[in-house]
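User: Okay, second chain of the day. Same drill as before: sequence in, structure tokens out.
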Amino acid sequence: MQKNYIWVKLYLKKLIMKKKLLLSFLLLMSIQLSSQVSIGNIESRSNKYVPYAENHDVNDFKLLKKTTCYFVVPSGMDFEKFRSLLADIWTFNELKFITTDEFFENQKKYVGLGKSVIRYCSGSIIYDEYGYGTYRDFDLVENGLLTSKFALYFCKKEEASKDGKVKRSMINFSEIFFTQNIKLRHKVIASGPGHKSSVFTAYAGKIDKKNKEEELGLYNFNLGYIKNYFQQLNDKLIKGENLIVKNDVINKSELKKLKTKTLYVPDWMLRKINGTKGFLKEVLSPKELMKKYPYKYLVVSNEEINDKILNKEEFYYLMHTQIYHMKLVSVINSLTGEIVYLNMNSMVFNVKDSDISKLVKEIK
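Assistant: Same drill. Structure tokens below.
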């Protein structure tokens, strides 16, 4: 009897651990985000490219163009640098800059007909008891979820309800999401449901020691990258074009230039994540990552790439974006922000030889 009891106890313990690992995988799928631009109505929780989206029609673009857009500069960021950066590239509609404090002191001032908002936030649009639509932020890490994004939204129409309250129809028009580093992804998963036991915490802490050099943060929340993302967004808005992630981008004329030009690769792309647990698996050498690439390339820091972008140097750089279970590999022109190559794969979390081979095939 005692032996049977011990066997059943061990079996249940293994079953619980398997469920926790499955939950880890599902949570990781829900938080793998990175910066690329999405223009369309989101049907799921995320990115600048939206995996499942309805196309906006021409009237939506026209309505948005007529609005005054309020850009809420994130707290902790240099207000004047942000204003200077975006004022030079944003031509779609009138753009005004406000601080985060100004926005939260009187949110209703900035939401209504003829107004649009770009704000760094998390969560989704909700309505309060007055029918006022805005973004609600969540305590993301504590809830085992994380979204890091700029959201562009505006009020399409207003109408009075029977009780005299104003109901607003809000459009979540576009989003630019950013990639959490492995340290942050690990923290998010470890804080999620089913992962707060002492056993899991001890296991996670032991594994996370491999990643001592990283601080919690985002891989690509840098002014240079942000400049390119908003250049791309501004260009698509002016042209009235939706941007959907499942549609690959192949600009042959631009890609052919890589036969003689250097492709820059951010060094954080050498870091491979364990797709089911959210831990640092290994760090590749530049040769290991790019062994299928026969042309010139250079693996450099984020700082170097961003300095070159802000100095208006023209070059091409590789980017890896993860949206849920979808991996995006792209090549971006640093001067224009144009995405000259984009390829999407499902159920993959790291850049592989096959991704580089696909790029090479389009360059030839």
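The two ends are 70 Å apart (CA to CA).

User: Thanks, on to the next one.
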